Fold this sequence. Notes:
Elements: E1 2-4, E2 32-33, H1 47-54, E3 73-77, E4 93-95, E5 117-124, E6 134-139, E7 145-150, E8 153-159, E9 165-168, H2 170-175, E10 182-189, E11 214-219, E12 223-232, E13 242-252, E14 261-269, E15 274-282, E16 289-297, E17 310-318, E18 321-329, E19 334-336, E20 342-344, E21 347-348, E22 351-356, H3 369-381, E23 386-389, H4 396-405, E24 408-412, H5 423-440, E25 446-453, H6 466-483, E26 488-492, E27 503-505, H7 520-528, E28 536-537, H8 581-584, H9 589-604, E29 611-613, E30 620-621, E31 633-634, H10 648-656, E32 662-664, E33 671-673, E34 679-686, E35 690-695, E36 698-704, E37 716-720, E38 724-734, E39 737-748, E40 757-766, E41 769-777, E42 790-796, E43 800-801, E44 813-815, E45 820-826, E46 832-838, E47 841-848
Parallel strand pairs: 22-23, 22-29, 23-24, 24-25, 25-26, 26-27, 28-29, 33-39
Antiparallel strand pairs: 1-9, 2-11, 3-4, 3-5, 5-10, 6-9, 6-11, 7-8, 7-10, 12-13, 13-16, 14-15, 14-17, 17-18, 19-20, 20-21, 30-31, 32-34, 34-37, 35-36, 35-38, 38-39, 40-41, 41-45, 42-44, 42-46, 43-45, 46-47
Helix pairs in contact: 3-4, 5-6, 9-10
Amino acid sequence: xxxxxxxxxxxxxxxxxxxxxxxxxxxxxxxxxxxxxxxxxxxxxxxxxxxxxxxxxxxxxxxxxxxxxxxxxxxxxxxxxxxxxxxxxxxxxxxxxxxxxxxxxxxxxxxxxxxxxxxxxxxxxxxxxxxxxxxxxxxxxxxxxxxxxxxxxxxxxxxxxxxxxxxxxxxxxxxxxxxxxxxxxxxxxxxxxxxxxxxxxxxxxxxxxxxxxxxxxxxxxxxxxxxxxxxxxxxxxxxxxxxxxxxxxxxxxxxxxxxxxxxxxxxxxxxxxxxxxxxxxxxxxxxxxxxxxxxxxxxxxxxxxxxxxxxxxxxxxxxxxxxxxxxxxxxxxxxxxxxxxxxxxxxxxxxxxxxxxxxxxxxxxxxxxxxxxxxxxxxxxxxxxxxxxxxxxxxxxxxxxxxxxxxxxxxxxxxxxxxxxxxxxxxxxxxxxxxxxxxxxxxxxxxxxxxxxxxxxxxxxxxxxxxxxxxxxxxxxxxxxxxxxxxxxxxxxxxxxxxxxxxxxxxxxxxxxxxxxxxxxxxxxxxxxxxxxxxxxxxxxxxxxxxxxxxxxxxxxxxxxxxxxxxxxxxxxxxxxxxxxxxxxxxxxxxxxxxxxxxxxxxxxxxxxxxxxxxxxxxxxxxxxxxxxxxxxxxxxxxxxxxxxxxxxxxxxxxxxxxxxxxxxxxxxxxxxxxxxxxxxxxxxxxxxxxxxxxxxxxxxxxxxxxxxxxxxxxxxxxxxxxxxxxxxxxxxxxxxxxxxxxxxxxxxxxxxxxxxxxxxxxxxxxxxxxxxxxxxxxxxxxxxxxxxxxxxxxxxxxxxxxxxxxxxxxxxxxxxxxxxxxxxxxxxxxxxxxxxxxxxxxxxxxxx
Length: 849
């Protein structure tokens, strides 16, 4: 059994996903993907792939191409052996891939998520169409250590949860008694392992399982293993009249065949216009060899506004068969000005960014492709031109989408919150960096190779020993430049090593973990002088979705100023330490929007500023935050974990999006409160020049947008509301038209007393799915609109709570949002009882039929 080194894995065997634009197909090859018919989920084929297969020297049916091992799997959780894996047992449960075995327990409020072995098994029908061809198992990523068996034969073990890996199982198939029913077993293990990156004290869940795609791949005896396209523009930085593209490739030739190959290299623009093709006959080669060097005149430059992509096809023909590999690439120039901005294609571009974890409500690390696409589209629609993929290599599909949509990328190795543990640990970092660059270097979206994150953490494995950490970071920095001299290296938060990477981000959390958000600009200007190339990675605030405040900045009066804005020690905890908004504040969406607003207005005014990436686009699970309003959730997202937008999303959109938009703050704020006749602020977020607000049909006037007029860029009105129902409507005017938004709400003028009574009521029913709302009332039955009490739902009887989703409406333990909380359940046709409890309060119960 041959393990194919990471350097030989990437695109040729990786069945990628349907792109946003079907004309931009990710790859083309004559290797065939196949397996048991019950275990395969075919994807759509590009016409050129079918034509290539038809023209092949072997009769390889096109229907075999582009399949995945999706169905036909079974799963068992717990320790096992390969020999026992095929013994009869009812403990195995059917699953489909991708699958994460922490999909339910990652944010369980009572029990830490499962750390251990998860076993997967299936039977494959092997039918390789190539005479003496090779059969491969390709994993696009699996957590965190994966061991593969055919029958009881060990195929190999891969350590690392995020890079792609591939095993050649040809010899194991030959030794098997029946290739039409080949038993394959994979055990994924996310147990504690100090020698594996990332460390256990990382602020995210180390998911386990086959949470990315698994593929069965057929190739001829000799095939194209990978191709890299190296692009260079003229040395004159203002000259973009031509570009040179060098095409290099590796072979997969385990049999050491020597028969000459017919090799064809073709380049074309996405409109199909061929710009280069050349065929030559050469002997098989070792390592990476240049096959073509091409001058491209008047190149289309890749940028966020015009993400122009090119196609490169490498085809080899031999007596063994035809192998064809299709790659995409882009042409662009990137520069970092010392103590100044980022330049793309010779022009200043402010990096307007966010960040992403691989996480989703209900599936955890096994986020379906359709939702990945939806998520990245939402990123783009917010106006983002830059994203940090933290804190590990993400799927090629994510990079494909960023290529197509025009989103620049920082991608990093999983060296997170750890000192130097061992030589084995160091080698893992070298391997992960090598694999990441090798597998993703053709993506024009990538501009930074991140070397790690927060490796100066208190009590980290291996200890925070400065010199060993500096030495290792220097080694990784040099390795990255050797592997890919065309991109920058980067690092976030390790102050004693800030001089090593090309770009560095300090810790600046103005207004959350230290100081006030009004100190943000001073912090940036201070840090600018300490490094050549400053970028600000990670800033923002937690917000409990649907929680709003009439006085969101109240906590700022208790926060010391002039002492820096960095995160120190264990400031991420909600208790202890110096006064800070993260522990003293109300975690409302209202406060988060003010913080976002201030940061964004500052960033617009700094001509020297490279840019930033807000933390984070979507809420995600973490084992180190059990006391958050949603236990074990990092709630700094602009979206909830199920991709429900929070109000903060629209603040960013108002600064960054080119498409006209307008949004009245408070779509999830059904009841506002205050004194009768008291003037209240209405905030409107828009990128339009002017906006007119109407309250109950009456105009409150037209305001002009000014990004430096805080808050809401001047689009705010002070007005009294009617007691009871109110309606707000806004009309925002831009050069070519008008956009509108409106909300309804109730204004409460009566005061409420101390919390006294919990109640439950059904609010929706769709088939067997029932949604219930809990309310906390005072002794007079008034809703306690400022209540943030922690409550807990429970079901006594048949049915299933829709919990552990990590959202405000999908958690059985959760803090109230302005006196309310929600949960859904699935009934099975019988009567059941839902209860809600809170400390020092009598439980409420609801009988559901």
